[in-house]
Design goal:
Layout: E1 8-12, H1 17-28, E2 32-37, H2 40-54, E3 58-62, H3 68-80, E4 84-89, H4 104-132, E5 135-140, H5 153-175, E6 181-186, E7 191-192, E8 212-213, H6 214-226, E9 231-232, H7 239-252
Parallel strand pairs: 1-2, 1-4, 2-3, 4-5, 5-6, 6-9, 7-8
Helix pairs in contact: 1-2, 1-6, 3-4, 4-5
The structure holds NADP nicotinamide-adenine-dinucleotide phosphate.
Amino acid sequence: MSPSSQGTALVTGASSGIGATYADHLARRGHDLILVARNQDRLEELAARLRAETGVAVEVFPADLANPADVARVEGRLRGDAAITLLVNNAGLGPQGPALGSDIGYQDTMIAVNVTAVNRLAIAATDAFVAKGAGTIINIASVVALIPELFSATYVGTKAFVLALTQSLNAEVVKAGVTGVRYQAVLPGLTRTEIFDRVGKSFDDLDPKMVMEVGEMVAAALAGLDQGELVTIPSLPDPADFAAVNTARYALGPNLSRDHAADRYKAG
Ligand SMILES: NC(=O)c1ccc[n+]([C@@H]2O[C@H](COP(=O)([O-])OP(=O)(O)OC[C@H]3O[C@@H](n4cnc5c(N)ncnc54)[C@H](OP(=O)(O)O)[C@@H]3O)[C@@H](O)[C@H]2O)c1
């Protein structure tokens, strides 16, 4: 792989939807690419198109991120390949329906891909990027992390994990005085991809006013990255609304851990 001036971006879930769209946009920004997903044929097809259209180097890296051995191979690549400057931690599964009465085996797979793999890859990339003092990690969460009551419980839990992981890792590297390592949590709303087709549902059954085209979503998320955002919510008109959430959260801070219970909880 010839080194590009932007370095190499490793994109998980690059065979369709948001991941494939990131791959396209990043290639046009001059990144070489490592494309990770299970469907090798689709990755090869995308890789061939992007090589032809943009001239960047594209490697296909088939892996099942529900499989610990495959996750370890991707981690090894992140730790060992100094050309990698960007991780897009995107691969994920949507819910089959409400968590109540759902297939617990499917939930386990969702947690393996949406949480365990995301965590392992984010930590591997953080270690590698901190060691060289540079690198960017984009974690794809979801707006449901902010409004858990609106969607399927276990999926929401996985996305709340991704948001909290990103905020906390960022705080850790800032506290450690590391500069040059950046994080972004992207919180898409409904975005037209294959995510619902895979669980027998369709975006066509939803209010079209709530569904963004995937190209617009990824372009907005990259604009948020360029603007230095830690958290990007592509459809949110007024950033002050999210800033207010954070102000309220931080105001809780001094009272969340004290040496005595609050008066209302004192017996008698
Ligand atoms: N679309 C939305 O409305 C929406 C909203 C908020 C957040 N998100 C998040 O966006 C991310 C991408 O989803 P999408 O909407 O683009 O859906 P998608 O079109 O279904 O794409 C999912 C990607 O993840 C990969 N993937 C699934 N299971 C995998 C596994 N076990 N190992 C490796 N790769 C796996 C798929 O590739 P293979 O099948 O080839 O493995 C595919 O490339 C997910 O994390 C999702 O939660 C989506």
